[in-house]
Amino acid sequence: MKQSSQAPSTRLAEVWSDTVDLRHLAWAIGIGISVSVAGFFAASRWLRGVVASPELAHAYAMLAGLAGCVLAGVICARLFPPKREVVEHSATHDPAWRAEVLAELAEQPGGLGTLADLPDAVVRELKELDLYDLFAQPAAPAAASPAAAEPRRGAAKEALA
Predict the structure, then answer these.
(1) What are the distances in angstroms from CA 159 to CA 52, 84, 154, 155, 156?
(2) SS3 readout for 80-140
(3) Higher per-residue confidence, 34 vs 6
């Protein structure tokens, strides 16, 4: 992902794992409050004369306020475009990045496993995503390093004894 040149990086912040422009966020909050509260009060005033019970009118007015929140979300989505661009296939085609990810996966408890352990549906999905060849390659030296490190630990224990 790369930032768009529309807003300076000093105005950008990360909120709930998304990049936002702080000025647009403030405007969106203001629009959300205005539309939802206006919807609540307008529906409350109109429903007082229509519904027999004031409690029921208040409940329906709250639903109108909730609908106002959804409407405000639509308005803000139209007014304020995303501040990031998603670029696919940037790091995934890098062999060094793939090797690093495979090494990290091999270090996890249980390791990588083998393709023979996978169900046929998973193998088909790996082939559709062009990931089958990546896992079909022989194990990297990083995956063999824990086994190579085992005799060294034993040798250290023998040296201490």
Answers:
(1) 90, 57, 9, 6, 5
(2) CCCCEECCCCCCCCCHHHHHHHHHHHHHCCCCCCCHHHCCHHHHHHHHHCCCHHHHHCCCC
(3) 34
Give the whole-angstrom CA distance, residue 137 versus residue 112: 12
| Nearest of 101, 82, 83 to residue 92 by alpha carbon | 101
DSSP secondary structure, 17-79, as one string: TEEEEHHHHHHHHHHHHHHHHHHHHHHHHHHHHH-S-HHHHHHHHHHHHHHHHHHHHHHHHHH
- What is residue 2's three-state secondary structure? strand
Tell me if the pTM is above 0.90: no
Q: What's at 146, amino acid-wise?
A: P
- The overall average pLDDT reported for the chain is 78
Residue 136 identity? A
Contact 95, 133 (CB under 8 A): no
Phi and psi torsions of 86, nearest 5°: -90, 125
